[in-house]
């Protein structure tokens, strides 16, 4: 396994000694010991599983210092350490196995193979031992945590729990260590008052926020906050969502270019805010709440963690509005309270306010998908106190989530879902029977208006979607940004993150981009990448104010290679430095000029049995498409690649197309053709609860992408869809007449993909996408002019 660590900062000798002393690992007088005895002392101070001399001796005898001598016997000789001795011991401490992960006779080869950080020394004196042991503590184990975190989970730092709050946090290599007792965390609930009235009752909506903070914050220590805005946090209505999911087995229809979309409901300004009747502590608590394991990891390092589901959820007021400015404002209000700029109450009725006087006023928002989306949304407001966001798999425009190119296009795996369905699913006020009884009719009326306003009938961009588009507000972002996204995410597609990253790069805004090969997942429990430590370093800078050069240490762009396991690479930008243009000649994609050729036709209609089968099993449709001989698609491939090419950026297709109906769509796939073992589509579970997040605290599962056991012949790397009537505007469709030839320009999903020597790049043009578009099975014949095909690809040579 290859370990990739990007969170390590350079330190000098004095700093290393100071920080090791702060952890009670280096003691006064230690440097009077020989190098061998100093190393022994450091090892024994990290081994807390026994306090007896016999137990320590047994532990040392279980380790090898050389291929033929155990550590106990080796240390008795008081020989000078060597690179081979130190790193043989190190590999064992890091849980790497002899003969499995490294050859016993060549431990330095194991260090190289696993890409572990190391310092070789010609002379192993006391300074060399301190230098190498310091680095060893920061080195990742085989099981996805640093050695220091492994030792911490075994209780090495429990003595820090009893330190005065004024002596915390303790920093090691620019990051706070786990010195906060999770079993003394304070759990409290507050109700933040907004300036919204989304349930039309004349009163300012309250939103519930659940706070988890260290007990030290009651002893004068002001701590930063991780805020996760999650509409799922108070429960979901999955059955309700299933019942109102829209039918997608319907035909596409002709659009009236002059038709208007229905208007969305507007909300009144609240006529009444609550009068404050005093100030006091929070009066409500909670036992547990759905959490994010990255937050759990950071909580023991001194961060308070806050969760809020926002308006329209259990114990809060208002309605669920799915990405609207009102939802953004509700979550912004929580940040304002944490910064000291807004009122919150200890309960829903007493009007006793609660002040977040334990907060240092510095907030980061975290979370994936809808959670990351709201982090992005709140950041666009420029709200004071929001200093950082970790935006994972986040939507940047809800139109691009539920629509594309003038079409209703589902997020991958959720055919028939729409904004109204998601609003219904997350309207957890249903969990309180009495509350739901009085709000039910108001909510149903709003949902009906939402269903009309989202306008599935046309798929056009309108005011409803404009209110849920964060792109025009990117300029309001003041927070530092860390973006994480899956290059194979078909739920929140890569176009969302590309738009945000493009803006931030052009604006020279502090940002880091991490692109992995997964779908819609978290990456904080991967064996190969020190993501949690990267975040800990970055937030120490942004929220604790530690000058650790995090922005210079962490890569601007970090991407996972699609060809190999455990291979993360650094770049300065997403886009490639070159653009290649392909045309069609003799039914092939070529870099030269197009040649005249007869039009290519295909029919989108299928036999009823096939149609029904593909509707029920869309994966069968995709397999059939990739193997189609031209019946319902057109295929163009390059010659076999002579050399590698890295596709980086947004491919763009231009083509002339016509259909026999008065409406139509064009879809496109970009495919890597070539037999190879590819990475699994989802990370493989390596160990259930294998990652401890603190001492006797919570756990996470260890995961990693692995190469599939069997080779496959292709991989879909990009795709796109466009309504023929929206060829010029997403908001204002053109008319279309049967057999009218029109020129389409279709941007495909952004890519970062290594196309290997011996593979081919294939372009597939078709109409219905059974995984994402409506599926009407119409007798539609499409005609493509191959001479007009132009595919522009941003790329670099490997």
UniProtKB/TrEMBL annotation:
BP GO terms, sorted: proteolysis
Position of the signal peptide: none
Annotated EC: 3.4.14.11
Annotated InterPro entries: AB_hydrolase_fold, Galactose-bd-like_sf, Pept_S15_Xpro, PepX_N_dom, PepX_N_dom_sf, Xaa-Pro-like_dom, Xaa-Pro_dipept_C
SMART domains: PepX_C, PepX_N
MF-aspect GO terms: aminopeptidase activity; dipeptidyl-peptidase activity; serine-type peptidase activity
Domain X-Prolyl dipeptidyl aminopeptidase PepX N-terminal: 1-156
Residue ranges of every copy of the Xaa-Pro dipeptidyl-peptidase C-terminal domain listed in the record: 536-792
Top-rank EC class of the record's enzyme: hydrolase
Keyword Transcription regulation: no
UniProt KW keywords: Aminopeptidase, Hydrolase, Protease, Serine protease
This protein's record includes keyword Protease: yes
Family: Belongs to the peptidase S15 family.
Annotated function: Removes N-terminal dipeptides sequentially from polypeptides having unsubstituted N-termini provided that the penultimate residue is proline.
Name of the protein in its database record: Xaa-Pro dipeptidyl-peptidase
Species: Limosilactobacillus fermentum (strain NBRC 3956 / LMG 18251) (Lactobacillus fermentum)
């Amino acid at each position: 396994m290859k370990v990739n660590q990007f969170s390590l900062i350079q330190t000098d000798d004095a700093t290393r000694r100071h920080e090791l002393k702060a952890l009670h690992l280096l003691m006064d007088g230690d440097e009077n010991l020989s190098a061998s005895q100093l190393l022994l002392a450091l090892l024994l101070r990290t081994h807390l599983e026994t306090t007896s001399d016999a137990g320590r001796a047994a532990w040392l005898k279980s380790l090898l210092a050389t291929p033929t001598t155990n550590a106990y016997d080796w240390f008795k000789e008081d020989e000078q350490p060597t690179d081979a001795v130190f790193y043989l011991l190190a590999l064992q401490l890091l849980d790497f196995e002899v003969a499995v992960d490294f050859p016993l006779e060549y431990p330095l080869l194991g260090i190289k193979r696993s890409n572990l950080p190391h310092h070789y020394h010609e002379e192993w004196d006391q300074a060399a031992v301190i230098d190498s042991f310091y680095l060893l503590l920061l080195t990742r184990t085989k099981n996805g945590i640093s050695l220091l975190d492994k030792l911490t989970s075994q209780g090495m730092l429990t003595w820090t729990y009893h330190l005065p709050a004024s002596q915390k946090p303790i920093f090691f290599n620019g990051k706070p260590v786990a010195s906060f007792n999770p079993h003394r965390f304070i759990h409290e609930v507050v109700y933040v008052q907004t300036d919204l009235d989304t349930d039309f009752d004349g009163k300012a909506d309250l939103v519930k926020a659940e706070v988890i903070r260290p007990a030290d914050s009651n002893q004068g220590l002001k701590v930063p906050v991780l805020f996760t805005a999650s509409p799922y946090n108070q429960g979901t209505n999955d059955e309700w969502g299933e019942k109102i999911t829209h039918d997608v087995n319907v035909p596409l229809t002709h659009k009236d270019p002059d038709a208007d979309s229905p208007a969305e409901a507007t909300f009144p300004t609240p006529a009444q805010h609550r009068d404050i009747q005093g100030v006091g502590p929070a009066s409500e608590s909670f036992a547990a709440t759905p959490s994010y394991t990255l937050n759990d990891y950071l909580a023991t390092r001194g961060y308070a963690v806050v969760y809020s589901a926002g308006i329209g959820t259990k114990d809060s007021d208002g309605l669920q509005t799915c990405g609207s400015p009102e939802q953004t404002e509700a979550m912004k209000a929580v940040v304002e309270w944490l910064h000291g700029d807004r009122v919150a109450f200890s309960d829903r009725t007493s009007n006793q306010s609660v002040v977040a006087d334990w907060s240092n006023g510095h907030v980061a928002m975290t979370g994936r998908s809808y959670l990351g989306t709201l982090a992005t949304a709140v950041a666009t407001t420029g709200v004071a106190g929001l200093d950082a966001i970790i935006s994972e798999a986040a939507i940047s425009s809800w139109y691009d989530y539920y629509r594309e190119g003038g079409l209703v296009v589902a997020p991958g795996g959720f055919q028939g879902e729409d904004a109204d369905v998601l609003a219904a699913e997350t309207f957890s006020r249903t969990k309180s029977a009495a509350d739901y009884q009085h709000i039910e009719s108001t909510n149903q009326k709003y949902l009906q208006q939402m269903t009309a306003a989202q306008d599935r009938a046309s798929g056009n961009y309108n005011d409803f979607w404009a209110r849920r588009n964060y792109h025009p507000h990117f300029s309001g972002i003041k927070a530092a940004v860390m973006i994480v996204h899956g290059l194979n995410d078909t739920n929140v597609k890569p176009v969302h993150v590309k738009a945000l990253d493009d803006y931030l790069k052009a604006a020279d805004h502090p940002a880091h981009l991490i692109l992995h090969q997964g779908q819609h997942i978290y990456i904080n429990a991967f064996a190969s990448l020190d993501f949690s430590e990267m975040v800990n370093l970055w937030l120490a800078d942004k929220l604790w104010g530690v000058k650790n050069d995090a922005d210079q240490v962490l890569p601007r762009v970090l991407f996972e290679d699609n060809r190999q396991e455990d291979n993360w690479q650094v770049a300065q930008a997403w886009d490639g430095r070159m653009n290649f243009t392909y045309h069609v000649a003799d039914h092939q994609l070529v870099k030269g000029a197009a040649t005249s050729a007869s039009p290519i036709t295909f029919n989108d209609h299928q036999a009823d049995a096939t149609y029904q089968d593909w509707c029920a099993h869309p994966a069968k449709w995709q397999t059939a498409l990739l193997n189609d001989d031209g019946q319902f698609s057109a295929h163009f491939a390059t010659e076999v690649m002579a050399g590698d090419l890295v596709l980086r950026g947004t491919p763009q297709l231009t083509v002339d197309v016509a259909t026999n109906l008065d409406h139509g769509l064009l879809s496109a796939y970009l495919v890597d053709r070539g037999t190879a073992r590819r990475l699994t589509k989802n990370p493989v579970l390596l160990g259930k609860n294998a990652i401890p997040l603190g001492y006797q605290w919570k756990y996470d599962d260890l995961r990693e992408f692995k190469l599939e056991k069997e080779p496959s012949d292709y991989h879909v790397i990009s795709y796109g869809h466009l309504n023929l009537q929206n060829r010029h505007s997403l908001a204002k469709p053109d008319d279309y007449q049967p057999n009218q030839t029109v020129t389409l320009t279709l941007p495909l999903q952004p890519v970062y993909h290594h196309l290997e020597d011996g593979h081919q790049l294939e372009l597939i043009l078709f109409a219905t996408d059974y995984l994402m578009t409506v599926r009407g099975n119409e007798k539609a014949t499409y005609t493509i002019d191959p001479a007009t095909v132009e595919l522009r690809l941003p790329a670099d040579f490997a």
